[in-house]
Write a structure and sequence with these properties.
This protein has helices spanning 2-18, 53-61, 82-87, 108-118, 139-149, 166-182, 185-188, 207-212, 225-234, 256-270, 275-298, 301-324, 335-354; strands spanning 40-46, 69-75, 94-98, 125-129, 133-135, 154-160, 202-206, 239-249, 359-361, 364-366. The chain has 371 residues and is α/β, with parallel strands linked by helices. It has 2 domains: 2-21 and 256-356, no CATH class; 40-249, Spore Coat Polysaccharide Biosynthesis Protein SpsA, Chain A, CATH 3.90.550. It has an 8-stranded mixed sheet with strand order 3-2-1-4-7-6-8-5, with helices on both faces. It has a two-stranded antiparallel sheet with strand order 9-10. The termini are far apart.
Length: 371
């Protein structure tokens, strides 16, 4: 008992002190002035997004970027009139492409992105964004200013996620927190570290960086495509990842079941479909999240004090994320319960895989590591 408690405390001492300050609320996109404004193409893949596409496209067309820019929407086989809704906006800066049949080996989203990029020349910069992301008017200008100021190959942001329903308020802040734990932003932004990640809602990338890695085709089968793209780009260039204050998701997750499906869709992909990694991850999560409150509540002597300190550390590390989402700090000590939900969903993702259900999204199913 003492050994487990001491191990949990050691884990949290390491995480707080040495794990890339993952618990911090930054960085965020700073204000910036453009020295020059190169042409930008904004590529939006969309499949069955009729409910949100007009709002998204209008926010992109309303950018106050001083240079030339255009929006390219790839309608990826939508059955709900997504492309027709976009075409009715009738703006010369908007091009709507009817996506072609997905070739073998490609994920649906990346094939749609590839077609949008092919239509984007000769723009020097490409902004990849999702069909459910709304952007403030100054967003593109700030992204380009950051890229130019620091000579980056790619800049990405974790957009502000919807946090309105009871399910979202309980589980969405933790999603961002766990992403930061997995990919500490300070490490991602350090050119001397191999850690690489991006968030698909907002990715600004140089065309020459895409060409260097072999185009979007280099990650064509990736199901966690944003992280795969970041790894490819960082291998020969500089990238940046931060929190967005000027872009937000308007995709709702009204029920716990919706968040469960969001996690189970790719959790086992993250573990490379490995039973050994699943077992190791489950054990590590148990030590990290279950041992501290377990020891604090049910042990005595040194084990209890180790549990109390570890529980205080983990709760304290969650406070900046709760503040970002304007949630009560009383959620902080409940983080082990939330982590248990994520742990169960990760196991559920593996169960889905071995049951043959694989990764499913918008009527498409993928098995294995590719399409």
């Amino acid at each position: 008992m003492n050994g487990a408690a001491m191990l949990a405390l050691a884990v949290w001492l390491y995480l707080i002190a040495l794990h890339g300050r993952f618990w911090q609320s930054g960085p965020v996109l700073p204000p910036g002035r453009l020295v020059w404004a190169p042409p930008v193409a904004i590529v939006v893949p969309a499949r069955d997004e009729a409910a949100v596409i007009e709002t998204t496209i209008r926010s992109l067309l309303a950018q106050d970027y001083p240079g030339p820019f255009r929006v390219i929407l790839t309608d990826d086989g939508s059955r709900d009139g997504t492309g027709d809704i976009a075409r009715r906006l009738d703006d010369a800066r908007l091009t709507v492409i009817g996506g072609t049949r997905r070739p073998a080996g490609w994920s649906g989203k990346l094939w749609a992105v590839s077609q949008g990029i092919a239509a984007s020349e000769p723009a020097e910069l490409i902004l990849l964004t999702d069909a459910d992301i709304v952007h403030d008017p100054a967003h593109l200008t700030r992204l380009v200013a950051l890229l130019e100021r620091h000579d980056l190959d790619m800049a990405s942001e974790m957009v502000t996620l919807a946090c309105d329903s009871a399910a979202e308020r309980a589980f969405v802040p933790a999603f961002v927190y766990f992403f930061q734990m997995l990919y500490p932003f300070a490490w991602v932004n350090d050119p001397l570290r191999a850690t690489a990640a991006a968030a698909g809602g907002t990715i600004l990338i140089r065309r020459r960086a895409l060409a260097r890695i072999g185009g979007i085709e280099a990650v064509r089968g990736a199901l966690i495509d944003d992280v795969a793209l970041a790894h490819a780009v960082k291998a020969g260039g500089r990238i940046w990842l931060g929190h967005a204050e000027m872009a937000r998701s308007i995709r709702p997750y009204p029920a716990v079941a919706d968040i469960w499906r969001m996690i189970t869709r790719t959790a086992y992909v993250q573990l490379r479909f490995s039973p050994l990694l699943l077992a190791a991850t489950t054990a590590a999560m148990a030590v990290t999240w279950l041992v501290p409150p377990g020891m604090a509540l049910f042990a005595d002597g040194p084990a209890r004090w180790c549990g109390i300190i570890a529980w205080l550390l983990l709760a304290g590390s969650y406070l900046p994320t709760l503040t970002r989402f304007r949630r009560s700090p009383l959620w902080a000590p409940c983080l082990p319960l939330v982590a248990t939900f994520y742990m169960a969903a990760t196991i559920g993702s593996a169960v889905n895989h071995y049951a043959g259900r694989g990764v499913a999204w918008k009527g498409r199913a993928y098995q294995g590591s590719g399409a």
